[in-house]
Amino acid sequence: MRLEDFDNDEDKIIQDRLKQKTWNEIRTNDSWAIFKIMAEFVNGYETMGRIGPCVSIFGSARTKADHDTYKLTEQIAYKISKAGYGVITGGGPGIMEAGNKGAHAGGGTSVGLNIELPFEQHFNPYIDTDKNLNFDYFFVRKVMFVKYSQGFVVMPGGFGTLDEMFEAITLIQTKKVAKFPIILVGTQFWSGLMDWIKTVLVEQVETVSPNDLNIIKIVDTADEVVEVLDAFYKKYNLSPNF
Questions:
Q1: What is the tens place of the pLDDT at every residue in 57-82?
Q2: Cα(132)–Cα(126) distance, rounded to whole angstroms?
Q3: Beta-carbon contacts of residue 185 (< 8 Å; ≥ 6 apart)
Q4: 3-state class (DSSP) for residue 38
Q5: In DSSP terms, which residues pair with 87 in a beta bridge?
Q6: Cβ pair 134, 116 in contact under 8 A
Q7: Digit-coded pLDDT (tens) for 120-175
Q8: Most exposed of 23, 94, 122, 201 (fewest Cβ within 10 Å)?
């Protein structure tokens, strides 16, 4: 079928991706992509390298401002900023907005790593104006989260939240990065997933080591989040003061 024969945009995108391209088209497109990827890395490194110790907060873009999880995220970010850490989010609405809002209220550094998406994503007004970065590539953005975070706080979310969480767990498990706190907030939300990991992955099929679960902490309050961060970094003498 030809591109014009498809009725909806999704089918047209798939057809365009599968279309046979000439070697010259492939080479030209890939070469420009390489330069664009390099530019995103350079801009990210230069900006993030000046910021100081930060904690990344993840969660759903769809969470409304009147939801309890939004309010808890705002409180967590506020207390994190008062403890001396900056806050990094994906820069968008929902939980990301709550994280930046709490950091802003606490007088801390508020960073937004935005991603270009066809829906949901638009930067929120609580990001520091000089710390609002935009990315086209998910993998570049994910490098920035891991490289410049001293901890991950993971609120209830969807596929994107799970992706960021498991990326960090995998990198720590395989020792590609030094261990840092991964804190899941909400026992009720996360217990089903953690029970499945323990009973199926650890005990039944033995594809995960029991020790790997030590990477993860589950808490329910803002104070517990700060306690986990402080306890971890007290051991390594990090003083997150700006």
A1: 999 999 999 999 999 999 999 999 99
A2: 10
A3: 72, 73, 76, 153, 154, 155, 156, 218, 219, 220, 225
A4: helix
A5: 55, 110
A6: yes
A7: 567 899 999 999 999 999 999 999 999 999 999 999 999 999 999 999 999 999 99
A8: 23
Using alpha carbons, select from 211, 117, 223 the residue that is nearest to residue 173.
211
Rounded to an integer, what distance in angstroms lies between the CA atom of residue 214 and that of residue 224?
A: 16
Token readout for 24 is 């010259």
pLDDT 10s digits, 174-189? 999 999 999 999 999 9
Residue 231 sits at the vertex; the CA angle it makes with 229 and 236, to the nearest 5 degrees, is 95
Q: What's the CA gap between 189 and 177, in Å, rounded?
A: 27
- In 171-219 the beta strands, taken as DSSP E runs, fall at 182-185, 216-219
Instruction: Compute the residue count for the chain.
Output: 242
Only one residue has tokens 């995220």, namely: 73
What domains appear along the chain, each with residue ranges and CATH number?
A: 38-235 (3.40.50.450)
Global confidence as pTM: 0.86
Q: Which residue has the tokens 């030094």?
A: 178
Residue % of the chain over a pLDDT of 90: 78
- What are the backbone angles phi and psi of residue 64, rounded to the nearest 5°? -80, 160
Spatial contact of 153 and 57, defined as CB atoms under 8 Å apart: yes
Alpha helices in the chain (DSSP H): 9-18, 23-48, 68-82, 95-105, 138-147, 159-173, 187-196, 222-235
